[in-house]
Amino acid sequence: MANATDRTPPLQTKFPTMGTTIFTVMSALAAEKGAVNLGQGFPDFDCDPKLLDGVIDAMRRGLNQYPPMTGVPVLREAVAAKIEALYGHKYDAASEITITAGATQAIITAVLAIVKPGDEVIVLEPCYDSYVPNIELAGGVVVRVPLTPGTFRPDFAKIGAALTPRTRAIIVNSPHNPSATVWTRAEMLQLQDLLAPTDVFVISDEVYEHMVFDGQLHQSAARFPGLAARSLIVSSFGKTYHVTGWKVGYVAAPAVLSAEFRKVHQFNVFTVNTPMQYGLASYMASPEPYLQLPAFYQRKRDLFREGLARTRLKLLPSEGTYFQCVDISGVSDLKEADFCKWLTTEIGVAAIPVSALYVDNDDQGIVRFCFAKKDETLRAALDRLAKL
Description:
CATH architecture of the largest domain: 3-Layer(aba) Sandwich
Number of domains: 2
Order of helices and strands: HEHHHEHEHEHEHEHEHEHHHHEEHEEEH
Helix content: 40-55%
Distance between the termini: 57 Å
Strand content: 5-15%
Largest sheet: 7 strands, mixed
Radius of gyration: 21 Å
Oligomer: single chain
Number of strands: 13
């Protein structure tokens, strides 16, 4: 019989209403049902063997101990050079680029660095599901502003109305997960003008920066001096180079913001996988892998959209990312979450309900597919979806 002193003390949870992330739930259901998993956003194909060669070479050269807290210099220099070449803004590699353990860690570290208890942070819904818990962990107040229903474009009148003297930051995401919309130059300029008279910081989630289609350009916050001066820009090597499991990303920010970011970074991660940093730096010597990424994913998008067009699902635009959203109203009157469970169980294809990416589960009858898959995977999914 257990001694009374062996009991676990009662715990008051920080997140009383929070369950497991929808991505984990749907991937587990897909595995259980043998469904084609177009839910969670990761490729099912391999990265370039040359990238692996760079990592293996680093390991064999003995580069297996702690790297500098901010990231190995050669990788920070490669990132700074890429940003300057693409977006025209020069960041100092030593003081303004920090290598992170993926973009998710970068985002929570950015929030913890700049948000104090009681500060308000604007999120544009639907949004990646780590934003709100990150703000709450920092003691901040989440201010939710919906993107325009149907188009998912930013509504600057609503954003402006949400700004108060307590607003500390706004989190923006383009190309946007889950809607696959891409902010235009005009929209970025409007954001810059709106924030100009304020002291509001921007956390700019740009992990899909190299996946913009139909000849558009990615409008990084780095392109706009008024935004760059107040932004922590987050990106992901995992998304760009098909190695999401490596969990390596970076943050670019002015020196004063980077210094605060690094104060938190050193104590929640300290540092990031050494040989992978050297492998990535070596691979970045050629820009071709990320310069060809729009064409690579646009072909997959077009293949997938062509097949979906033969179903009763209504296609929404896919301007960037590797996601495709569809309106399910012509197929089912189920709620999005129930539809996704039915689709996984009965049709054999997993998707993500967009409502799960709203704090209040706002249901508009839209679900998200991921097309970062082998062509044969996409065709297998389309064969099953043809039943709809």
